[in-house]
Amino acid sequence: MERIALITGATSGIGQACARRFAQGGYNLILTARRDDKLQEVKQQLEKEGVEVLTLTFDVRDREAAHKAFASLPDAWKNIDVLVNNAGLARGLEPEYEGDYLDWDEMIDTNVKGLLTMTRLVVPGMVQRNKGHVVNIGSVAGDAAYAGGNVYCATKAAVKTISDGLRIDVADSCVRVTNVKPGLVETNFSNIRFHGDEQRASHVYDGIKPLTGDDIADVCFYAVSAPAHVQIAEVLVLATHQASGSVVKRNV
User: Fold this and answer.
1) 3-class secondary structure for 178-191?
2) What is the DSSP-derived secondary structure letter of residue 112?
3) What is the average per-residue pLDDT within 105-125?
4) pLDDT tens-digit profile of 166-196?
5) Is 229 helix (H, G, I), strand (E, B) or coil?
6) Among 3, 54, 98, 239, which residue's Cβ finds the most Cβ atoms within 10 Å?
7) How far are the Cα atoms of 54, 102, 110, 179 from residue 161, in angstroms, in the given order?
């Protein structure tokens, strides 16, 4: 089989953009997400690119479901070359002392524990074969907290340190690890953060041209496509008028 990329959270935003970009780059794809109907739509679209697509429907928060899904892979699909740990989300923008316990659980279980589960499932095979690349989708929010970001920022700081730790752990192999840290990206991220409040979500990008999912997918593919002796450890990607997680110059 040709090269294989496994992408989590592949039905929207950065995940779907990565699926398109890796398909264009000749990778066959294992795509995971919670909604099977959306996965099938993406599968049909990408198979028109001439690549093979296998879908796995499960929530990365459900460790047992993740193990069952991974165990179900046909032998020909088990030699995964690239893992893109994209599944993640933000919930709420309240002060920490007013935060919602369920929002906290969802962010920690998805952004941190889900990423760890997928890493634990896929990376041993990479180490055994002495080849592979892990791309973790972090965030500028992992560099410094911003108002209301508290727990979300903490989860993305964890993605950074988990990426750094994994890079140390596989340094005696040819496995590479990249942490891609986007700033403002116009996807359904804000809609999810505000629990479907589209009006509130729409104002996040007022007065600035944000990044797109395709912009981040291009960065991921570039990192994976670097020569074998080059490891792009970390990339911070911001919109031109965004200076940090909390500094944005808006034309309003």
Assistant:
1) EEEEECCECCCHHH
2) I
3) 98
4) 999 999 999 999 999 999 999 887 778 877 7
5) coil
6) 239
7) 31, 24, 16, 10
Question: Which structure tokens are listed for 103?
Answer: 């929002």
Identity of the amino acid at 43: K
23-32 per-position pLDDT tens digit: 999 999 999 9
Known active-site residue 152: yes
Q: Strands of 23-172 (E only): list them.
A: 28-33, 53-57, 82-85, 132-137
Buried b (16+ CB within 10 A) or exposed e, 131-168: ebbbbbbbbbbbbebbebbbbbbbbbbbbbebbeebbe
- The span from the CA of 111 to the CA of 85, in Å, is 9
Do the Cβ atoms of 137 and 93 come closer than 8 Å? Answer: no
Token pair 């460790």 is at which residue? 63
| Residues whose CB is less than 8 angstroms from the CB of residue 198 and which lie 6 or more positions away in sequence, other chains included | 191
- How far, in Å, are 176, 201, 203, 243 from residue 248 at the CA level? 32, 16, 13, 6
Burial (0-12, 13-18, 19+ Cβ within 10 Å), 172: exposed
